[in-house]
Specification:
Blueprint lengths: L9 H9 L7 H9 L7 E4 L6 H14 L3 E6 L2 H11 L9 E4 L15 E5 H10 L7 E6 L10 H14 L4 E6 L5 H7 L3 E4 L6 E8 L3 H14 L4 E4 L3 H15 L9 H12 L7 H11 L2 E4 L5 H12 L5 E4 L2 H4 L7 E4 L3 E4 L2 E4 L2 H8 L10 E8 L2 H12 L13 H13 L6 H9 L2 H5 L28 H15 L3 E4 L2 E4 L1 H9 L3 H17 L4 H8 L12 H13 L17 H15 L4 H8 L3 H24 L3 H16 L6 H4 L6 H9 L5 H6 L2 H8 L1 H13 L1
Parallel strand pairs: 1-6, 1-7, 2-4, 2-5, 3-4, 5-6, 8-15, 9-11, 9-12, 10-11, 12-15
Antiparallel strand pairs: 13-14, 16-17
Helix pairs in contact: 5-6, 9-11, 10-11, 10-12, 16-19, 16-20, 20-26, 21-26, 22-24, 26-27, 31-32
Bound molecules: adenosine-5'-diphosphate (ADP).
Amino acid sequence: MKITKVPIPDNFIEIFKSEGIEELYPPQEMAVKSGVLEGRNLVLETPTASGKTLTAELAIAKALEKGGKAVYIVPLRALAYEKYLAFKKYEFLGYRVKLEMGDLDSSKFYRVDYDILVATAEKCDSILRARTDFFLGTKILVMDEIHLIATDRGPVYEILITKFKKLFPGIQVLALSATIGNAEELSDWLCADLVSSGWRPVKLTEEVIFGEDKFMEIQKTARKSILGGGQVLIFVNSRRSTESVAEKLGSNLKMQNYGSMELNNLNDISGKILKALSSPTKQCRRLGKCVKLRTAFHHAGLVNKQRILVEDAFKGGLIKVIVATPTLAAGINLPSRTVIIRDLLRYSKRGMDYIPVLEYKQQIGRAGRPKYDKFGEAITIAKSNKEKEFIIKNYVNGTPEPIYSNLGVEPVLRFHILAAVASDFARTDKAIFEFFRGTFFGYQQNPGKNFTKIPGDLNDYDFRPASEYKKNNFEIKINKIIEELKEWKFIQEIKNFLLPTNLGRRISELYIDPKTAYNYIKIMELAEEHDHFPELGLLEMLCDSVELPRLYINRKEEAGLWTQVAGSEHELLRRLDAFTLDATFLERFKTATVFKKWINEYSENAIMNDYNVAPGLLNQKLQIAEWLCYSAGELSDILSLRNTKREMNKLEIRLKHGIKEELISLVKIKGIGRVRARKLFNAGVETVNDLRDADVKILEKLIGKKVAGNLKKELAGN
Ligand code: ADP
């Protein structure tokens, strides 16, 4: 179908044409034929890069034409930003395109008017907790990457859809999915049509090769691809491997000598990578060196700035090879002619496991750059002939697994039950059951339909036929959670109605697990009572939450850590007894110890060397800790724990900037971070007033001419 024949307004068609889109891709045409432009619900299940976004844009255009608004939900912040930039073009047609992905405290939410809203799922859910009317007029809800419903980020996806359907009956739901094993089930739940297709814009060849020396095979394949004008993406299963493979390929392939070079640009990027942190770590230097050799590694240990530099340099063709952990496959759009999978095995709690077919398909789905490549090639390397056969049978010819809801896990249910009560979605236990029955989870375990047996954690549901069904295990579980929330005084029952307490409402707004809040409140009340706020103890408390992934502990560290625990018992807020010393205590202690180093101004490099925590990972954990610290402060406020509130506020700033208490007033000034603040303080400039009084020449020496100049200007302005 020609784009000009699609029944949407001409100005949209003009935009698509200007982007070189002439014909709809076959799955897009199927979607149009299925009635997606008439407002019908649709699950579009096609491979990566087969143009799902455009289908959504067509449907959005139609909704806007009818005077409606559109909400586009993505799973990750990086993706939200990417889509927002892609949709900004609609501002030229006079539509308001907005992005929501920040702060999750819904009490701080202010109204934003939009026609097209791109948001992360969590942010959207958080807004719904504050203001449901914000979404009035929304005609279409697009759920991107809905196969992620099966991951730990998934439950909020189901909750969102369920809430939207309840609030706005008749809203159109368009779910975009990679290939999954049970798309019918998904579309049945959504009352949607299903368009399912394996079509891809660039042909893909899948091959499995066996080589005694995996690295040699990688090198051979990469060289061939690059000499033919390609780029290479290599997936391995550990961060350490990404680094060693990238480094070795860089020096062996000698790509600096391939054709005309833009070595200056590479040097420039390499320099920026080194400067991403105040003091470069071993990892930064290693990455900088790789980039000069036109390779890079990509994993969660990189800080955002570096990740983006690497991705852009790859998209621009400067970097030829990226060696990545599989997180890359789920994230941003980074196609490459050649994809090499070195490891199908991955570390898990139980040892080594084969990855799901779904993930394999996502990884190979990155092969083939539309516009540049006639074909994409995916090559998996087997370590034996036997494994080669296994891979061909189970992966190349295998079908992706069905996906299952993750909502039935206790912390997740607890989190959403409190929210349902606090934000008025359900006021009785029956209404709560009803609400959860509307989710994918409810659908998958619903008595009376043909069950898909739910694995793992979700095993304990009632599979009796509807006639025998009274209260199933799911409802018993919900009741148990309601009782618990009552006991914790987060909800109360008044005349058979469930209502939130002030505390409960605030916890729901703060977007934290009720159990986390309960854990914090216990410790904070104790601290307030004794007026005792040691930093290690507060940090250990913050780590006692499902939100914060704790650091792992290896066997070798264990004894040393216990010695440290014994030496710092007075710095902890909980008494150490059999009850507090649960399996996670040592992990909490270690994580808190690392945070303590950070707020005592240890460099990222020192933390990396002493604890093997890469800067990117440290940043992620610190961001969560900062948010939890803010939340703890808000809770102490509601409970009138005044001293605790003061301490949490200080700790929040210290976590954010990585500083001792004495620098707090300095970092509040724009342009001053931990390094500059320390220099100033050590030179006797300790407060804002000192700064005002200080001689500009002295300031210039301490923090550079430009910053000093700006600072003086800003202070003069106040
Ligand atoms: P998906 O969401 O399925 O991963 P995208 O929507 O990101 O795929 O599309 C991949 C690329 O294909 C984008 O660059 C997009 O502009 C392009 N594209 C989509 N549909 C068409 C089309 N009908 N004709 C030409 N290019 C298209």
